[in-house]
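Researcher: Here's a chain I'd like modeled. Treat it as a single chain, no partners, no ligands.
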Amino acid sequence: MHIYSFFQHIISPMNMAMKQFATKHSYIKPRFVTKFTYTMQIMEEKPNTYLKGRGSQFNPNNRFNQFQYAQDHIEGLDEEFISQEKTEIIYTHPKTIINKVDSPDIGLSYSLNPYQGCEHGCIYCYARNTHEYWGFSAGLDFERKIIVKRNVVEAMRKQFSNKNWKAMPIMLSGNTDCYQPIERKLEITRNILQTCLKFRHPVGVITKNSLITRDIDVLKELAALNLVHVMISITGTDEDTRLLLEPRTASYKKRFSVLKELSDNGIRCGVMVAPIIPGINNHEIPAVIEMAAANGATSAGYTIVRLNGAIGGLFKDWLGKNYPDRADKVWNQICECHGGDVNDSRYGVRMRGEGKIAESIRQLFTVSKNKFMKDVPPAKLDSSLFDHRAAESQLSLF
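Model: Modeled as a single isolated chain. Structure tokens:
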């Protein structure tokens, strides 16, 4: 029997008897009974409701749903909402897989995302909002309902084989991490890289997972033809912060070692210090760039956090639970970077922000990059080798 239930079973009748006695005999002060009752209340064990290993702590409402689940009066429920669900894999077969990127902030023409949703659980991830288009929530659903595009390679081959297709670098992935945990089993990203190699198509990769080293063999062949560039996302050096901010990602130490392994194998790589969150990790910019450069990174980039859509509420909840002492300060500094709001969708400023705090971050990044990285020209991948007939393997023999 639960210890509180045990005491309640014994003490409750005594408590009731004492209250009745106090009512009958007015000379007994009520506060004596009140104190006794309070003493028993504080013996109740409070469960730890923080979901370890998850970035978000709840499922916000999906803006597209007509009806919503509510937890306003949980004391009236017969059983609790399930909060520790296992990750669910959902397969889909899209007709097209390569997306044209119109944003001038990105720097690449196309993106390809084999997965929707991400088990890494980064609380700040801007891709969370895309889960609402699938009928799910941007919160816990984003982390534990992973949509897998099963026919990625077939769709790529069909698109690459079109004689009108013009090869330009494809970003893998611009939305969710292509090396998230399920990739270890499915190997879709590896197959994508092999397809790019076969067609001699340029590709850029960004990830925060050390699983990328599994595909060093394919990446080396792509690098030899100047067809690949890799960015490793590293937001700091403090592991305690990472466990809260990006709970299911590779450790920072491991990510720096990934840079070294890529560099040692002739694969051009850089570091993405993103996102920068004022009051959380902005002070770590110099250390990240210095360590990245020491491990072979030749380029660096950064963005300032912006909390669009449902991410604002998720992040504010996370901030209050993990950094209650500075939650208001951090929130206000983010707002200061985006004209008084936590999000600014304007091209040209949404990634870097504006104002004094944004400018101080830009200066710190620039000084750090100039100090620790050589003046290496940006990677320009080769699109001239592309062969749309590569799938016709039999014809290629003649």
